[in-house]
Amino acid sequence: MSKVIACIDGTEVSTAVCDYAAWASLRLEAPLEFLHVLEKEEYPEQSNLSGNIGLGSREALLDELAELDEKRGKLALEQGKLMLEAAEQRAIGDGVGNPTSRQRHGNLVETLTEMEEDIRLLVLGKHDDHLKAHVGSRLENVVRTMHRPILITTAEFNIPQRVMIGFDGSETTRKGVEMIAGSPLFRGLPVHVVMVADNNEANRAQLEWARTTLSSAGFDTSCSILHGDVERVLCDYRATHEIDMLVMGAYGHSVIRRFLVGSTTTNVVRNAMVPVLLLR
Asked: Looking at the structure, do residues 275 and 182 belong to the same domain, yes or no?
């Protein structure tokens, strides 16, 4: 059965990840599972210090360092288990029935790839640059590898009230409109479709298709063609209309997607002021 999978790591964004995942689970009527991956790069199962000649050849010292690494890894795993238990209890408090959890010692991207068949929506939090070991620093690899919708959260949870789609008429963004129209995730919420382009007949036809598709599915839809710098226009629109979730197609070559995702996904998502739902 397809699940909402929420990746948590115990940092300051984990609470918001839990809450957004619970919100999505309830909206989609999908099971919720929390995932904690202890990265082997940071917490190896065994330490190999044989090549570290700077430590000298004293076996006792090498053994002690290896033992310390092993203890550190065990403590991190235990901390992760407690964190997962707390996440389950928080989700239950939010109204989710029977949330589950999973812990892995390995690689986040590899773990998610193995789970991909069972993922309906993946929820991740974003972090500052200095948090190199955590989920946020691996956003770009995850987004490029996975072929499931990915919700990237901010550090504070706010129940979404208004949604904006960055639309350009491409196959990817048209598919995104169809996915939203057919999903209960945003049912009952107003949807703003924004196109930053020339106001010509072809673009107006594309926007009218988006309006018709969403309106036919019961959405209160506002559509706009705006002109100017893509980043500035979209940011100003978001602020003016109090948009609290942004939806886009992941990757491509259009001007909107180069701004929103493009080849520097992590940097762009980090600067977003609201959660971002990436559709593949």
From this structure: yes
